[in-house]
Design a protein that fits this description.
The complex is a heterodimer of chains A (288) and B (335). Chain A starts with 15 loop residues before the first strand and ends in a 7-residue tail after the last helix. Helix content of chain A is 24%, strand content 30%. Chain A is of the alpha/beta class. Chain B is α+β, with helices and mostly antiparallel strands. Chain B is 29% helix and 23% strand. Chain B is built from ten helices and twelve strands. An eight-stranded mixed β-sheet of chain B has the order 3-2-6-7-8-9-1-10. A four-stranded antiparallel β-sheet of chain B has the order 5-4-12-11, with no helix packed on it. Chain B is globular. Classes of the chains: A alpha/beta (288), B alpha+beta (335). At the A-B interface, strand 4 and strand 13 of A face strand 4, strand 5, helix 2, strand 11 and strand 12 of B.
């Protein structure tokens, strides 16, 4: 039995109190909140632990907690950003909260993207719809120390133009000479003034045909997109060991006890949420 | 010579422990179900029960447990912790399978993040186990390579004498010795021989079953669908199980004040794993039953080197459609 206690508080289920300092509407029903710690000790603990890829449980007392990734990068740890789609009780309460309101955060939990191992390599980010937030945390963590990485390519798609999240940041990446951004929307999702690609992410990825040489791919999206994107990456010659993804399972405790995030023998909350495609391929597909 | 506690002295022992500030808990026959509950006198204890309907788990991991009380004022959230009770208690008459169930869950509640609700109660409880001299058709500890006199998770093991006259005392831990030092005057040296332990027949070969479960291709076997056809997903097996530990966290209250609780949950329920998007990794009852069996005999031992089953047989005993772990593993042994 391991005796390590990560949490300074004896009650591992007690969240930190956070103040909403900014909010932004990303797409219909999708909102980003920027949160600041109210207790300096909580903030210190967060700064010490947080690395890109980790997740947390965001909550509103009286409604409960929901699990999302930390969408802000590890290079900007003065605050936490989360982006979520309003769909249930907790996300509705979070969406209805105003700037200045207090909410809760428990975490950061889980493992991380080993970005030190990506130094000197080309990076390919592939993301679909509401799954850009976890990818965005890694993207900014790398862009904030741009000199350490090779070529950076981002392939991002959504069902419609309206569904693209972080539109202001997409513009910023589009205008950066050191980032290749490939934007696409599903057929039928384009608007009259849409000047980028139309097509599903795997198809557009194959057309863009990034080289697998010295390249790490980070993909995040709905299960169906991941499935077909992995096939495309294989076609392009990517080794499963160089492809990373993050699993988004339902969680309640976040600390390996409540039992619901298991995929096969894997506790996603403790051994994940970041896995290589090789690790995912060893998990029972029907459990994903 | 062995050390004996005679039953006619038990009432004095209960008094002694209680006056030392310990609550005394033991097997009790309730109106409909038997369980482990607090008693004031020894006559309330029912030692004739083969195994209480409800497991010992709930005294360490209650069905519902308040964790935090929140009070929200303008621009301020006040959160107060609920802690597990710190008063000492003695559980007199636990069954070996229930005591070992606690030991099985210790590593789960303790890996990296320590759940103090569990460990606080573990720390303050003395577990006095009575070896089984009777078993019923559902008992299956021997199939799990356990015995009706297993000492796992126990502080003291008692072996019954004939005619309910008392027990041979075997103290196993310092905590057990301390609790029994309080009643030293009632323990006599004598050369009594305890009753033989119950005969529990092996119902399946565990190694054969585990080897089958570990083969990746059997995850997709049609066996899972066949065996779980009659499962109605009631979750009785998981709630009565001495080792099932899954839970939910829910708030009870309103926007201004309330309590955050940890409640039992079950992998038998469809909503247990349902994603916000509507995607459900375990969308069928067969996938959920497979998870339960795999978790107990393949995944959990892979993590913690122990099967998540102590062989109490409650899952079969109480199942409304007669399909528990025994039936499933018996079928797997035939594959």
């Amino acid at each position: 039995m391991t005796e390590t206690i990560h949490n300074a508080q004896p009650n591992i289920y007690k969240p930190a109190i956070m103040k909403i300092v900014a909010r932004h509407d990303e797409a219909p029903g999708v909102r980003t909140l920027r949160l600041e710690f109210q207790d300096p000790d909580d903030h210190e603990a967060f700064k010490k632990t947080f690395r890109t890829g980790m997740f947390g449980l965001y909550g509103v007392y009286g409604e409960g907690e929901s699990t999302f990734c930390v969408a802000s990068p590890e290079t900007r740890n003065e605050y936490i950003e989360c982006t979520f789609r309003q769909s249930g009780r907790v996300t509705s309460a979070l969406a209805n909260a105003d700037i200045g309101d207090l909410v809760t955060f428990r975490g950061p939990y889980g493992n991380r993207f080993p970005i030190e191992e990506f130094h000197g390599k080309n990076l390919l980010f592939i993301s679909g719809g509401i799954a850009l937030p976890p990818t965005r945390s890694v993207i900014w963590s790398c862009l904030d120390q741009r000199e350490k990485f090779g070529k950076i390519t981002i392939v991002y798609g959504a069902r419609t133009v309206a569904d693209l999240v972080y539109k202001h940041e997409l513009d910023e990446w589009q205008n950066r000479p050191d980032v290749d951004l490939v934007l696409t929307v599903d057929p039928g999702g384009e608007s009259p003034d849409w000047k980028y690609r139309v097509g599903f992410v795997p198809t557009v990825l194959e057309e863009a045909s990034p080289s697998p040489d010295n390249c790490i791919a980070v993909i995040c999206g709905p299960p169906i997109m991941i499935k077909f994107t992995l096939i495309s990456l294989k076609k392009l010659g990517f080794d499963e060991k160089n492809v990373y993804t993050t699993l988004e399972n339902r969680m309640k405790c976040g600390v390996g006890k409540c039992g619901r995030c298991n995929v096969g023998s894997v506790y996603v909350c403790k051994e994940g949420p970041v896995f290589t495609a090789e690790e995912v391929s060893r998990m029972p597909a029907a459990d994903l | 010579m062995t050390r004996i506690l005679f039953s006619d002295k038990l009432d004095h022992c209960v008094e002694k422990w209680r006056s030392a500030g310990m609550s005394v808990i033991g097997p009790v026959q309730g109106e409909s179900l038997s369980s482990y509950a607090e008693v004031e006198r020894s006559s309330d204890l029912c030692f004739g029960i083969v195994l209480p309907d409800r497991s010992l788990k709930e005294l360490f991991f209650p069905q519902t447990e308040p964790m935090l009380r929140y009070t929200i004022k303008k621009n301020e959230i006040d959160t107060a912790d609920f802690t597990a009770p710190t008063s000492p208690r003695i559980i007199f008459g636990a069954r070996p399978c229930d005591a070992s169930g606690l030991a099985i869950d210790d590593p789960l509640f303790g890996w990296d993040y320590k759940d103090e609700y569990w460990f606080q109660r573990r720390k303050t409880s003395v577990i006095v186990t009575i070896a089984c001299t009777n078993a019923d058709d559902f008992c299956m500890c021997t199939s799990l390579k356990e015995t009706p006199d297993s000492t796992k998770g126990s502080d003291v093991l008692l072996r019954p004498l004939d005619k309910n006259r008392g027990w041979v005392v075997e103290e196993l831990t310092d905590r057990g010795r301390e609790a029994f030092a309080l009643i030293a005057e009632y323990i006599k040296e004598s050369d009594e021989t305890p009753l033989p332990i119950a005969e529990v027949h092996e119902k399946f070969n565990l190694d054969t079953c585990v080897a089958w479960l570990q083969k990746p291709e059997n995850f997709d076997s049609k066996f899972w669908k066949e065996i779980s056809m009659r499962c109605i997903g009631c979750a009785s097996c998981t709630y009565l199980c001495p080792t099932c530990h899954c839970f939910d966290i829910q708030d009870e209250g309103d926007t201004y004040s309330g309590i955050r609780r940890k409640n039992w949950d079950s992998c038998s329920f469809a909503l247990f794993t349902m994603h916000t998007s509507g995607h459900n990794p375990r969308s069928t009852q067969s996938a959920r039953w497979r998870q339960r069996i795999m978790h107990k005999f393949n995944y959990f031992p892979g993590k913690f080197s122990v099967n998540s089953c102590s062989g109490c047989g409650r899952c079969s005993r109480q199942c409304p459609v007669d399909m528990g772990i025994t039936e499933t593993l018996q079928e797997i042994s035939k594959l």
